[in-house]
Amino acid sequence: MKKYIFALAAIIITGIAFAGFNSRMGKKVQNKGVLSVSDIQADPAAFTGVITITGVVASRSNQDPKLFALVDTAEAKLCKTVTCGIFYLPVKCTGKAPKEGDEVNVTGEFAEKGRIFRAHKVDFLRHLNF
Fold first, then answer.
1. What is the pTM assigned to this prediction?
2. Most buried residue, 30, 71, 94, 118, by most Cβ within 10 Å?
3. How far apart, in whole angstroms, are the C-alpha atoms of residue 23 and residue 69?
4. Stretches in the chain below the pLDDT threshold 50
């Protein structure tokens, strides 16, 4: 089990390093189609205009019913939980936040220099049962 966790951590760290390296090398940002949370984690501020991101709701704010965090769907499926994400994307929506474990597409744009994603539309895809 320890070997499996170590190997998984090494793969994730390598992926993060590679994503960061690519963003610094002048890689053109793809703003078309549905992006995953991992697609944007290296440099959220690089994404301009209206985009759609898919992910799984990891948590909801107790203080703000419109604020929640997304993790990458592949990470959630691999871990079989929403609490093991490497990167959590804060999302503020116009309506009530979806439930923890819901896989959703959020459409909107980044605000506050990429620190928060303002979703104009939240589409429920399915609920992941772990």
1. 0.75
2. 71
3. 23
4. 2-10, 14-30
Provide DSSP, 50-81.
SEEEEEEEEEE-SS-TTEEEEE-HHHHHHHTS
Residue 1 one-letter amino acid: M
Q: Give every CB contact of residue 106 below 8 A, 6+ residues apart in sequence.
A: 52, 53, 54, 55, 70, 91, 93, 117, 119, 121, 122, 123
Tokens at residue 76, please? 């959630």
Would you say 103 and 54 are in contact if contact means Cβ atoms under 8 Å apart? Answer: yes
Which pLDDT tens digit goes with each residue over 97-110? 999 999 999 999 99
Tokens matching residue 53: 């991101």
Domain locations in the chain as residue ranges: 30-127
